[in-house]
Amino acid sequence: VGNDDNNLNSIFYEHLTRSLQESLCGDLILGRWGNYNTGDCFILASDYLNAFVHLIEIGNGLVTFQLRGLEFRGTYCQQREVEAITEGDEDNEGCCCCKPGHLPHLLSCNAAFNLRWLTWEITRTQYILEGYSIIDNNAATMLQVFDLRRILIRYYIKSIIYFTASSPKILDWIKDESIQKILQPYAKWHYIERDLAMFNVNIDEDYVPCLQGITRASFCSVYLDWIQFCARKRVEHLDSDEDSPLVTLSFALCILGRRALGTASHNMAISLDSFLYGLHALFKGDFRIAAKDEWVFADMDLLHKVVAPAIRMSLKLHQDQFTCPDEYEDPAVLYEAIQSFEEKVVICHEGDPAWRSAVLSNREELLTLRHVVDEGADEYKVIMLHKSYLSFKVIKVNKECVRGLWAGQQQELIFLRNRNPERGSIQNNKQVLRNLINSSCDQPLGYPMYVSPLTTSYLGTHSQLRNIWGGPVSLDNIKKWFKSKWLRMRKDCHAAAHHERGNVEEVDSGGGSSSSNNSTGNSSQSSSSQPTRDGTPQLQTSSQEVHQRAGRRKPRSQSVQAHTALNQRPPASSHSGPIVESRQPFIQTSTSAHEIAQRLSSSQLSFHNSATSVFSQSPAVPVAGQLTVQDRAAAMLRSSLASSTSSTLSLLFGKRSFSSALVISGLSAADGGNTSDTQSSSSMNIAMGPSARAASQAARQVTETCEATDAMEPRPQREAGPAHALFMSRNLECRRASQEDMALEDTASQQSLSEEQ
User: Residue 138 belongs to what H/E stretch?
Assistant: First the structure.
């Protein structure tokens, strides 16, 4: 490999120096390089990177070092010493003149004896550093046949069209009168571009053999679909029909690009060497513009932003087509690929400052075309770099041996004037690595590819130690630490408070004891009745108080109202016009009420089934003047429904507000046959307005008067039995519980009324 190749590869050693600067100090402290001291020398060896690391100074939390990069593919002597480093001693089974073998995980006697005679030792077999994996392909092999060159020219033209249509200055170029005036010949369909030295039927798809040139019609027949596809990808509308200025400009730029390639190839595009020479010249930006194409100087962006990146993009597309040949036939796939490569891949010449900046900034992927001159042979290589992690072997060298070899080279070259490049002092010697050590010395004694300046690595830049150690102790770091802890504590407290608030809201909305007591207490207060002298209950709640407490008791009244409206049939006295009209939209808008109604109806249905089973087992002997079994079953069913409803409401509203729930559902005034009537009218009285409650109250008074009259009439004596006893006991318990809770709630309601007054 020639000097040009070595000079271009020096950038990788500079990148390796940057990687060591971040991790060397921490790795030394972690013991990954073994024992170390000031002045120690190490060699990093891999497949193609071989570097000499010299520890200059070691301080508290810092290390100053210098890296010397050797040739990628060195001389024969260097390769033999690298092989001596990489080869293992596990296969050596000798002991003096015999081969008895060795124990597992132990060296043989000969291997152990030989290693004691070496001036170097391997301290680590796998040391990982961030770097680039290098892939180089011979460009002559990829462009040797005409079909492969045809593919490259096709991608070249499509890339020119892409960069033209996607340029932000395309509208200015189309509207520029000076450019359009020069491009008038290209707008004619019968225009023929004849240049036998530039265009060839073997590599140009739009070449017309009978006309011996390229016409606008042949160009549109091949590339018009791609032009229109690129134009549709723009945000603003861009005319792209056959006679549009966009097609004219694209046709002129494609002719210019191919003519520039032919001019750089010395008008010998058929020859492979000439083609590669012209391709490399355009790749590094050396454009030779002919007199016909000087119109491009009207705006240099046409050359720098369209033609120059197009030749580089075509080389990348040509490389990828070997892995998937037919993938880029689809315009959408090709367009996305060019967009992706434009953003992610750095494609430029190695002499461009952008190449060095991209390598040192750790870009993911890079591509370049390199011209290598080695002993009179010209080679063109496509170099592809991919960011990856490289594995090295760390070899510790005896520092006194290094000083002695460097001193010997100085005496031989400077004082003894030995200019022989194949002198014996630089030949390979596996025991001391003489060639690697002597070649790493400064010029003119050695010939290193790269010598870094004195570089300092700090402990705080090591990623693993920084996470454990936390960085240096300074006022800024202490302030940041306290600030981070304070913010974290506030965040945790806020999250805990938000969680508790959410639990409280769930309890309030789901029927918690405190909220249910308040809501049922208000509802009982608004609908509480005080007995008069003749025992008739009388409502004493004004319409203003009902409206003030409507918001708090709305969920309970909605639930009870929906239960009575969906599951029970109201009596005839409660079928007034306003009540029926206002009940139907309320039922439609209450989802929670419908759910509670379903629960109540299910509980009633289960109790109805149990009561039916009990009555079916009890004997029924009809006697003249007494109730039949069906009448007693109906009476007991009504009482059981009241008991089941009261137990369900006690679960929903709590123990302390049980009487309020009884008042709401009408169970406190219910007695056997009028349970459903009173419950329906009471719930409707709470949910409706004052006029509806007045009508319901009048109907309720009429019903209670009828019940009192019926109670005064003599009734036949009922037959005592198990079913009758069960009925009487449950009815008595329900009456006693309702009266006690009613008395407590009346007292509470009177106290609350007095406090409000």
Answer: strand 120-138
What 3-state DSSP class applies to 57?
strand
Please say whether the beta carbons of 462 and 23 come within 8 A: yes
Question: 3-state secondary structure string, 397-423?
Answer: ECHHHHHHHHHHHHHHHHHCCCCCCCC
- Note the pTM of the prediction, 2 decimals: 0.60
Tokens of 341: 């490569």
User: DSSP for 542-566?
Assistant: -HHHHHHTHHHHHHHHHHHHHHHHH
556: left (phi over 0), alpha (psi -120 to 50) or beta: alpha
Alpha carbons 120 and 399: distance in angstroms, whole number: 10
Residues 6 or more apart whose Cβ sits within 8 Å of residue 660: 520, 521, 523, 524, 653, 745
What would the pLDDT profile of 21-72 be if each residue is shown by its tens digit? 999 999 999 999 999 999 999 999 988 888 999 999 999 989 999 999 988 7
Q: What is the CA radius of gyration of the chain?
A: 49
CB 55 within 8 A of CB 455: no
For the chain, first and last CA: distance in Å? 107
Q: What's the rounded Cα separation, in Å, for the pair 9 and 459?
A: 29
Structure tokens at 41: 């020398």
Q: Which two tokens stand for residue 66?
A: 């210098």
Query: For residues 123, 126, 128 and 134, what is the CA-based torsion angle, rounded to 10 degrees?
Result: 120
Taking CB atoms within 8 Å and a gap of at least 24, the contacts of 551-556 are 552/518, 552/519, 552/522, 553/519, 553/520, 553/522, 553/523, 553/526, 553/686, 555/519, 555/592, 556/516, 556/519, 556/520, 556/523, 556/653, 556/661, 556/664
| Cβ 42 vs Cβ 33: under 8 Å | yes
Q: Are strands 450-451 and 62-69 parallel, antiparallel or unpaired?
A: antiparallel
Handedness of CA 104, 109, 114, 115 (dihedral sign): positive
Q: Give yes or no for a contact between 128 and 388, defined as CB atoms under 8 angstroms apart.
A: no
Amino acid identity at 444: P
- Cβ contact 448:68 at 8 Å: yes
- Whether the bond between 444 and the residue before it is cis, its omega within 30 degrees of 0, is yes
The pLDDT tens digits for 110-151 are: 677 677 778 888 899 899 999 999 998 999 999 989 999 999
Distance CA 10, CA 13 (A): 5
Exposure string of 433-457, with b = 16+ CB inside 10 Å and e = fewer, is: bbbbbbbbbeeebbbbbbbbeebeb
- CA-nearest of 133, 142, 198 to 369 is 142
Residue 320 token pair: 């990828």
What are the pLDDT digits (tens) for 578-597? 333 333 433 343 344 444 44
Q: What's the CA gap between 207 and 213, in Å, rounded?
A: 6
Label each residue of 228-247 as H, E or C.
Answer: HHHHHCCCCCCCCCCCCHHH
CA distance 752 to 541: 12
Give one DSSP letter per residue of 124-137, joined into a string: EEEEEEEEEEEEEE
